[in-house]
Short-chain dehydrogenase
Amino acid sequence: MKVALVTGGSEGIGRAIATRFAKENYHVVIAARDAAKLTEAASQIKTEWATPVVPMPTDVRDPKQVQDLVEQTIADFGQLDVLVNNAGLYSTGPTEEFTLEDWHQVIDTNLWGYIHTIQAALPHFIAQQKGAIVNLCSIAGKLPMPYLAPYTTSKFAISGLSQALSAELSPKGIQVCAVYPNIIKTAFPEKAVLQGKNPEDKKARYQQLKQTVSMPFIEKPEDVANGVWQALQNNESEPILGSAKLMGGLHALLPRLTQRMLRMVFQNKDSLTSH
């Protein structure tokens, strides 16, 4: 029986990925900060698929908690086969309005959270000469997103980290995969780091996010979960999922037009001195 560890596993994409692994008869450990949500998710997945699903409350920003998480997983199941890094925060607003605290909140979760789990799990993978690391990235890790500077910074870093690890670890039997979805229909606006030129701008950005995720064509967490599973089965290193392919393709062909379009989408009440 194989074992998967999924961070940010209490809801949204992480919960869908955990469910997909349970469906494939994996033993699953899910980690997140909210113990109540985590326990509910584990109970529901376990009931649905009749496979062990263990909740372990963890703040991925804390390396000690992450080390304990990985060690406890291996102690409970005797092995770890797949690490899925998913815990993350979205941010939007004019760059000059973000505080250093905002930057740390995003980078410490989105990037350092991934580094902490990889640092903890990698010795085990190397010792067993097999394993897989899946890093949930974003199309914002492939093309620059105006007004999403902290988020884009973290995702570009995850992309580079994943590519470097893949090049180094594939000869050692360890698959590293960075997955690039577009915006997904989840509750991420509720936890997003938002800033604005004024309170109205900040509120408008939140409403924009809420409106976007409510649109019927926005992809679902299950779409990402299926993409992750297929990437592992096909030994893919950089799958770009769904509508993210369109955005990436448009930027490759018409980068200036794409940037202009993205500025129009995310600018809101910020004023531009030149166009």
